[in-house]
């Protein structure tokens, strides 16, 4: 962390105590937890929503696809539109938008209104994540940035492990409208928490299109974006079909897939914080190890995942490795662009979200043509290409 970002951090103190800064980190993590839960919650509600609003499950899937794509475009656009607006006010506004959007989802009279509310969710996700991803440098001292970033992105893993399953359970027990209403209530709690503990975060420089384009001339940023696109695209092309892979390749009974996916999520949480610890020492080596582990774990399913034990072990290894992706690559971007963290993070979030949707889409095409073997090989090949691009940046001092 240098120059502009350092001065921004210093500008929040000395009246801001160390404890209050970590409370702010926790409030931002709560925000990321709820945003990712909101993005993925409809996965577990497709059938009841489709039945209630008279649409097919395939059409209901737009509730997941639409916010991901919107978030990809919103990530760079929102910071440009708001200019130099205090980032505290921006994050409060985006969480308020999330609260209102889920109220609309809960009372939507038809599917068109529901999809419109999901567009608002996508805007909130993209804008909030673009700011939150690089916020650690504004809240804690330089040596604590990897740990704070890991906590913020811990909200992503927690959403997969706890948020989405619990939201689905609420929907099963009380109805899908109550699930969305409950999410809105929790978003209001997050809004109040941010209001209480988040300090003023005056923008040192407005994010302009020229500044965004300038990041693409930064070799470290380019490598980070390429690696992100490849890893996330490859992961979601394969992980979207992990349930049939476990059943058909590893011979695991359908009843045991849910608990194993919970184990994947728990492994991801562990991987997130383990990566945060490792990143505080060596960024380049840590991110490279993550990419290599993914490049090995996915295709290895075809050799060692043919048994129940082998499939379960490889799934956990996969989860551990992928758990470090968000915090690892976000830290890479912070290191690569210390004077333009917000601009670089906006590009990174855009690529990340677009890669999610495109990866799942490509995976579907590959499964239909080449089968499950094809998506596992595709996922491994993408991770391998990412590892090669990261290895090529070993001489870049900014990301060592």
TrEMBL record:
InterPro entries: MFS, MFS_dom, MFS_Efflux_Transporters, MFS_trans_sf. The keyword Metal-binding does not apply. The chain crosses the membrane at residues 21-38, 58-82, 89-109, 115-137, 149-170, 176-198, 219-237, 257-275, 287-305, 311-334, 346-366, 372-393. Residues 24-398 form the Major facilitator superfamily (MFS) profile domain. Keywords: Cell membrane, Membrane, Transmembrane, Transmembrane helix. PANTHER family: CHLORAMPHENICOL EFFLUX PUMP RV0191, PURINE EFFLUX PUMP PBUE. Its main location: membrane. PROSITE patterns: MFS. This is Transporter. GO terms for cellular component: plasma membrane. It comes from the Bacteria. The keyword Hydrolase does not apply. It is found in: Cell membrane. It is a multi-pass membrane protein. One of its GO terms (molecular function) is transmembrane transporter activity.
